Amino acid sequence: MGNNEVSFSLLDSIAGKKEGIVIDQAQGYQYTVIAFAILSLLFFFIAFKTTRERVPAPKKQDNSVSKDFKYLFKNRPWIVLTVVGVVSFVMFAMQNAAIAYYFKYFIKNTEEVQLFNIVGTLALIVALPFSKPLAKRFGNKNVFITSSIVSGIFFAAIYAAGSNITLIYIFNVLAKMAYAPAVPLLWTMIADAADFGEWHLGRRTTGLCFSAAVFAQKVGWAIGAAAAGWILEMSNFVSNGDTQPDSAIFGIKLLVSVIPGVLYASCAIVMAFYNIDADTTTQMKIDLEAKRASEL
How far are the Cα atoms of 66, 90, 180, 284 from residue 73, in angstroms, in the given order? Predict the structure, then answer.
């Protein structure tokens, strides 16, 4: 979530700024991409070197992509998590597309954007460690639902803050902190969905569970970015304009606050259909361990 903030900070450092204006943006983008490419290569090597297969593939399972897809769409927990992922990324994309306009045309301070995003990201990072103890105490599903509702309320509250920059920061920090526990939980729950597929349906599709979920999230990002453009157009947004009509300002404010808030809170409704609880997880672990032991 903080990649944009890091990217733009690095871009400004490489390209240089004079009176708030980037001097050589082309060079900045070029070297920023090179820096990320080098880091990516390093982390790929580390991942391949240190990662070990924990769950052996079922020996009797035939390799069939068509069968995997067939069973995947019978996996209710995976479907629920995929829908939640799509909705979440629609929300992220819409807010991301409008945040610069929000500060330029409503707050009238473009220098504030980067700090706003960095503070929000730091708040998220600070709250991340609470995910595991909360999930252990209340369960993955309950924590995710609560996180969705509370963060949705705080995102929507940004609209009520008006142009009060202090309140805007406070609501954004609270929203990011409330949202933080759900970030690692989503991936943990996808792993549980893969176990559920093997336990309930008799076919393990771990790789497809994760890759299809990631693809769905990318689709959500594309939908969100496109939807933001449509809303701005319907709001009579003037591209590169010095000022915007009231209708465009209203649309921008909705994209940053109310719409993301409603979308993320709605994830709680979808998550209500997630049918893996703590007891189910324990039983799956016992049954699958017994099954794998019998296959040795």
Answer: 11, 22, 28, 19
CB 82 within 8 A of CB 212: yes
Which amino acid, residue 281? T
* CB contact at 8 A, 273 and 80: yes
Buried b (16+ CB within 10 A) or exposed e, 236-270: ebeeeeeebeeebbebbbbbbbbbbbebbbbbbeb
Q: Which CATH number fits domain 70-295: 3.20.20.70, 3.30.70.20, 1.20.1250.20, 1.10.3720.10?
A: 1.20.1250.20
User: What's this model's pTM, rounded to 2 decimal places?
Assistant: 0.82
State the pLDDT at residue 219. Answer: 94
Q: Which of 261, 258, 253 is nearest to 101 (CA)?
A: 253
- Integer Cα distance of 48 and 40 in angstroms: 12
Per-residue pLDDT reduced to its tens digit, 208-262: 899 998 999 899 999 999 999 999 999 999 988 889 999 999 999 999 999 999 9
